Amino acid sequence: MDNELLKIVVSKHFPLLAPMLSEINIKEDRKLQYPAGLNYREKTIYINPNDFNTLDKNEKLFVIAHEVMHFLLIHDVDLLKDKRLLLIFNLIRDAQINHILNDQFDFMPKGVITLYTLQEMNTKVKEYFNDNIKQFLEEDEYFIAKLMLDDVEFTEMIDEMIDVLEKYDDNNLDETIQKIKDILNKHGIKDEYDKISKTIVKEYKESLELKNMNPREIEELIDKAMNMLEKGRTISKMTKQNIDIPIKLKRKRNTWKEILRETIGEIGTLSADYDL
Known about the structure:
Layout: H1 3-13, H2 18-23, E1 25-28, E2 36-39, E3 44-47, H3 49-52, H4 57-72, H5 83-105, H6 115-121, H7 123-129, H8 133-138, H9 141-149, H10 152-165, H11 173-186, H12 195-211, H13 215-238, H14 256-264
Parallel strand pairs: 1-3
Antiparallel strand pairs: 2-3
Helix pairs in contact: 1-4, 4-5, 5-9, 5-10, 5-12, 6-7, 10-11, 11-12
């Protein structure tokens, strides 16, 4: 499928994403080690046609829409300062996006990260949400992060992953993915299709690339994303689909530290190695 046609088809299926798609390039990169990946600075989704073209139509639409959603729900600048929270937010955001797209496309690729994945990883999430996807999507993401940090074994697993991810480069991708999978297995989490471990590595790398951008560039991207989301809501209403993103976004309301204090309490209760 032609890249421009792909954008049109995704927009038709999910008009909320149409304005953001109009701002994003889709280009090929045969060296890419995944079917698709983001470059925030270039506002580009790169696809490796060798892998991407093995997907069926539903999978292709889901993958492109998923990447666009990451643009729309880009991390706040200050969140990028903390490795633990960055990794946790990547997991939360990925699950949120996949459930939203499942509602829209009535389709979910096998092995992707979902609320059920997070519940398998974290006893506190399981106890609180108990398979309630609607509640998960509507709950404040900082509260979910706090909930996840309350599980000691989960926090230990995240720290083990960070130790591995900090040594990652493009030359040891397969080794890094396998180590992440081994950590998941060690903690009793199945990754039958390798998608969880691959997603963790891929999105951590993309987050670090975002972190290396100038903070003003990131703020401009956030402003762009919020504007495109508002335009998408208008188009969605005009097409009588009335689709929205239920995730609570606290953009421009408070600083990251203030939000953490609201939802987690005193910063001093967090681990001493937090880079605040």
